[in-house]
Fold this protein.
Amino acid sequence: MTETSEHDRRDPSEGPGRDSIYDPLRRENLGRSVLWALVSSKPVPLGRIPDFRGSGIYAIYYAGPHELYTPISSAKCDIPIYVGKADPEGSRKGQNVGAAWESTKLRDRLRQHGRKIDKALDLDLSDFSARYLPADDLFTPMAERLMISDLQPVWNVVLEGFGVNRQGSGREDRQLRPKWHEMHPGIDWADGMPAQPGGPEPLRAAIVAHLERHGTAPSASDGEPGQPGLTDLSPI
Protein backbone atom coordinates (compact mmCIF):
# COMPACT_ATOMS: atom_id res chain seq x y z
CA MET A 1 0.00 0.00 0.00
CA THR A 2 1.40 3.41 -0.94
CA GLU A 3 1.97 5.71 2.02
CA THR A 4 0.09 9.01 1.78
CA SER A 5 2.17 12.08 2.51
CA GLU A 6 1.04 14.94 4.72
CA HIS A 7 0.90 17.12 1.60
CA ASP A 8 -1.52 14.68 -0.08
CA ARG A 9 -3.75 14.49 3.01
CA ARG A 10 -4.05 18.26 3.42
CA ASP A 11 -7.52 19.69 2.88
CA PRO A 12 -7.31 22.13 -0.08
CA SER A 13 -9.57 24.50 1.85
CA GLU A 14 -6.78 24.93 4.42
CA GLY A 15 -4.75 26.98 1.90
CA PRO A 16 -1.16 26.50 0.78
CA GLY A 17 1.21 24.42 2.84
CA ARG A 18 4.38 25.66 4.48
CA ASP A 19 6.63 24.55 1.60
CA SER A 20 4.69 26.59 -0.96
CA ILE A 21 5.06 29.88 0.93
CA TYR A 22 7.96 32.04 -0.22
CA ASP A 23 10.19 32.95 2.70
CA PRO A 24 12.88 35.42 1.56
CA LEU A 25 14.94 34.64 4.66
CA ARG A 26 15.28 30.92 4.00
CA ARG A 27 18.98 30.29 3.57
CA GLU A 28 18.59 28.85 0.07
CA ASN A 29 16.58 31.88 -1.05
CA LEU A 30 19.20 34.26 0.31
CA GLY A 31 21.84 32.30 -1.57
CA ARG A 32 19.71 32.18 -4.69
CA SER A 33 19.31 35.96 -4.70
CA VAL A 34 23.11 36.20 -4.93
CA LEU A 35 23.08 33.59 -7.68
CA TRP A 36 20.52 35.58 -9.68
CA ALA A 37 22.56 38.74 -9.35
CA LEU A 38 25.58 36.82 -10.67
CA VAL A 39 23.87 35.28 -13.70
CA SER A 40 22.24 38.61 -14.55
CA SER A 41 25.63 40.24 -15.00
CA LYS A 42 27.37 40.52 -18.36
CA PRO A 43 30.12 37.96 -19.06
CA VAL A 44 33.61 39.30 -19.67
CA PRO A 45 36.56 37.56 -21.38
CA LEU A 46 38.50 35.58 -18.79
CA GLY A 47 41.74 36.83 -20.29
CA ARG A 48 40.73 40.47 -19.77
CA ILE A 49 39.49 40.68 -16.20
CA PRO A 50 39.51 44.38 -15.22
CA ASP A 51 40.76 45.86 -11.98
CA PHE A 52 38.15 45.81 -9.22
CA ARG A 53 37.99 45.24 -5.50
CA GLY A 54 36.12 42.68 -3.45
CA SER A 55 35.69 39.00 -2.72
CA GLY A 56 32.68 36.99 -3.87
CA ILE A 57 31.40 34.41 -6.33
CA TYR A 58 32.15 33.70 -9.99
CA ALA A 59 31.29 31.36 -12.85
CA ILE A 60 33.47 30.46 -15.85
CA TYR A 61 31.97 29.59 -19.24
CA TYR A 62 33.34 27.90 -22.34
CA ALA A 63 32.60 28.69 -25.99
CA GLY A 64 35.30 26.84 -27.89
CA PRO A 65 35.76 23.81 -30.18
CA HIS A 66 37.02 21.22 -27.67
CA GLU A 67 35.09 18.06 -28.53
CA LEU A 68 34.52 17.03 -24.92
CA TYR A 69 32.74 20.24 -24.03
CA THR A 70 30.53 20.60 -27.11
CA PRO A 71 27.26 20.20 -25.12
CA ILE A 72 27.98 23.28 -23.00
CA SER A 73 30.04 25.33 -25.46
CA SER A 74 28.04 28.48 -26.12
CA ALA A 75 28.54 32.23 -26.35
CA LYS A 76 25.25 32.57 -24.44
CA CYS A 77 27.01 31.44 -21.26
CA ASP A 78 24.10 29.32 -20.07
CA ILE A 79 25.95 26.52 -18.29
CA PRO A 80 29.22 27.20 -16.46
CA ILE A 81 32.15 24.89 -16.84
CA TYR A 82 33.29 25.88 -13.34
CA VAL A 83 31.90 27.78 -10.36
CA GLY A 84 33.90 29.11 -7.43
CA LYS A 85 34.24 31.77 -4.78
CA ALA A 86 36.98 33.93 -3.34
CA ASP A 87 36.75 34.52 0.39
CA PRO A 88 38.03 37.60 2.21
CA GLU A 89 41.20 37.53 4.27
CA GLY A 90 40.92 35.53 7.48
CA SER A 91 37.69 33.73 6.59
CA ARG A 92 39.24 30.25 6.61
CA LYS A 93 40.32 30.56 10.26
CA GLY A 94 37.37 32.73 11.22
CA GLN A 95 39.59 35.33 12.83
CA ASN A 96 40.15 38.94 11.81
CA VAL A 97 37.94 38.42 8.76
CA GLY A 98 38.31 41.29 6.33
CA ALA A 99 35.38 43.10 4.78
CA ALA A 100 34.22 41.77 1.42
CA TRP A 101 35.30 44.94 -0.38
CA GLU A 102 38.73 45.39 1.20
CA SER A 103 40.82 43.07 -0.97
CA THR A 104 41.19 42.10 -4.63
CA LYS A 105 40.67 38.39 -3.88
CA LEU A 106 38.00 37.85 -6.54
CA ARG A 107 39.93 39.61 -9.29
CA ASP A 108 43.13 37.77 -8.37
CA ARG A 109 41.40 34.39 -8.34
CA LEU A 110 39.94 34.89 -11.81
CA ARG A 111 43.27 36.02 -13.20
CA GLN A 112 44.95 32.99 -11.64
CA HIS A 113 42.45 30.72 -13.38
CA GLY A 114 43.12 32.53 -16.64
CA ARG A 115 46.87 31.94 -16.37
CA LYS A 116 46.33 28.24 -15.70
CA ILE A 117 44.02 27.81 -18.70
CA ASP A 118 46.46 29.73 -20.86
CA LYS A 119 49.19 27.19 -20.04
CA ALA A 120 47.03 24.15 -20.80
CA LEU A 121 48.09 22.55 -24.08
CA ASP A 122 44.59 21.79 -25.37
CA LEU A 123 42.69 24.90 -24.22
CA ASP A 124 42.57 28.47 -25.55
CA LEU A 125 42.03 31.26 -23.06
CA SER A 126 40.13 33.31 -25.64
CA ASP A 127 37.35 30.68 -25.54
CA PHE A 128 36.54 31.41 -21.90
CA SER A 129 34.36 34.05 -20.27
CA ALA A 130 33.44 34.77 -16.67
CA ARG A 131 30.68 36.31 -14.64
CA TYR A 132 31.65 37.57 -11.20
CA LEU A 133 29.93 39.27 -8.29
CA PRO A 134 31.63 40.90 -5.32
CA ALA A 135 29.34 39.96 -2.44
CA ASP A 136 29.15 39.48 1.30
CA ASP A 137 30.90 36.27 2.34
CA LEU A 138 27.90 35.24 4.47
CA PHE A 139 25.87 34.40 1.36
CA THR A 140 28.42 33.42 -1.30
CA PRO A 141 28.95 29.85 0.01
CA MET A 142 25.21 29.18 -0.31
CA ALA A 143 25.10 30.67 -3.81
CA GLU A 144 28.10 28.59 -4.87
CA ARG A 145 26.60 25.38 -3.53
CA LEU A 146 23.23 26.07 -5.14
CA MET A 147 24.82 26.76 -8.51
CA ILE A 148 26.88 23.57 -8.36
CA SER A 149 23.83 21.57 -7.27
CA ASP A 150 21.58 23.04 -9.97
CA LEU A 151 23.99 23.06 -12.92
CA GLN A 152 26.58 20.41 -12.08
CA PRO A 153 29.58 22.20 -13.67
CA VAL A 154 31.84 19.54 -15.13
CA TRP A 155 35.06 20.97 -13.70
CA ASN A 156 33.52 20.97 -10.22
CA VAL A 157 31.91 17.56 -10.36
CA VAL A 158 34.04 15.37 -12.66
CA LEU A 159 37.42 17.06 -13.05
CA GLU A 160 38.22 18.05 -9.49
CA GLY A 161 41.43 20.00 -9.11
CA PHE A 162 41.04 23.00 -11.39
CA GLY A 163 41.20 25.34 -8.41
CA VAL A 164 44.08 23.48 -6.74
CA ASN A 165 47.29 25.41 -6.20
CA ARG A 166 50.79 24.00 -6.20
CA GLN A 167 51.42 21.80 -3.17
CA GLY A 168 54.23 22.25 -0.68
CA SER A 169 57.69 20.89 -1.35
CA GLY A 170 57.79 17.09 -1.39
CA ARG A 171 54.02 16.56 -1.42
CA GLU A 172 53.76 16.43 -5.22
CA ASP A 173 55.74 13.18 -5.30
CA ARG A 174 53.28 11.48 -2.94
CA GLN A 175 49.94 12.65 -4.35
CA LEU A 176 48.25 11.77 -7.62
CA ARG A 177 47.96 14.43 -10.28
CA PRO A 178 44.63 16.30 -9.91
CA LYS A 179 42.02 15.08 -12.40
CA TRP A 180 41.77 18.43 -14.19
CA HIS A 181 45.51 18.44 -14.76
CA GLU A 182 45.43 14.83 -15.95
CA MET A 183 42.92 15.84 -18.60
CA HIS A 184 44.56 19.17 -19.48
CA PRO A 185 48.38 18.92 -19.29
CA GLY A 186 50.71 21.86 -19.58
CA ILE A 187 51.21 23.05 -15.99
CA ASP A 188 54.73 22.00 -15.03
CA TRP A 189 54.24 21.26 -11.35
CA ALA A 190 51.21 19.03 -12.02
CA ASP A 191 52.73 17.28 -15.03
CA GLY A 192 55.50 16.04 -12.73
CA MET A 193 53.08 14.31 -10.33
CA PRO A 194 52.10 10.61 -10.51
CA ALA A 195 49.35 10.04 -13.09
CA GLN A 196 45.76 9.12 -12.31
CA PRO A 197 44.95 5.38 -12.67
CA GLY A 198 44.28 4.71 -16.35
CA GLY A 199 45.41 8.17 -17.39
CA PRO A 200 42.98 10.54 -19.10
CA GLU A 201 40.78 7.97 -20.86
CA PRO A 202 38.50 7.13 -17.90
CA LEU A 203 38.09 10.86 -17.34
CA ARG A 204 37.09 11.39 -20.97
CA ALA A 205 34.36 8.78 -20.60
CA ALA A 206 33.20 10.34 -17.33
CA ILE A 207 32.96 13.81 -18.93
CA VAL A 208 30.92 12.50 -21.87
CA ALA A 209 28.53 10.63 -19.56
CA HIS A 210 28.18 13.62 -17.25
CA LEU A 211 27.39 16.10 -20.02
CA GLU A 212 24.84 13.74 -21.53
CA ARG A 213 22.88 14.23 -18.29
CA HIS A 214 23.81 17.81 -17.48
CA GLY A 215 24.40 19.50 -20.82
CA THR A 216 21.30 21.69 -20.73
CA ALA A 217 20.28 24.33 -18.23
CA PRO A 218 17.15 23.77 -16.10
CA SER A 219 14.15 25.92 -16.92
CA ALA A 220 13.73 29.17 -15.03
CA SER A 221 10.75 27.79 -13.12
CA ASP A 222 12.96 25.09 -11.59
CA GLY A 223 14.80 27.73 -9.61
CA GLU A 224 11.96 29.91 -8.37
CA PRO A 225 12.23 30.74 -4.67
CA GLY A 226 9.96 28.72 -2.44
CA GLN A 227 9.45 25.95 -5.00
CA PRO A 228 8.66 22.63 -3.31
CA GLY A 229 11.62 20.37 -3.74
CA LEU A 230 14.14 23.21 -3.86
CA THR A 231 17.54 21.95 -2.81
CA ASP A 232 17.70 22.02 0.97
CA LEU A 233 21.21 22.88 2.10
CA SER A 234 22.58 22.01 5.48
CA PRO A 235 23.62 24.97 7.63
CA ILE A 236 26.92 26.59 6.73
User: Anything to note?
Assistant: The radius of gyration is 20 Å. The chain has a mean pLDDT of 80. The chain has eight helices and four strands. Residues 165 and 190 are 9 Å apart (CA to CA).
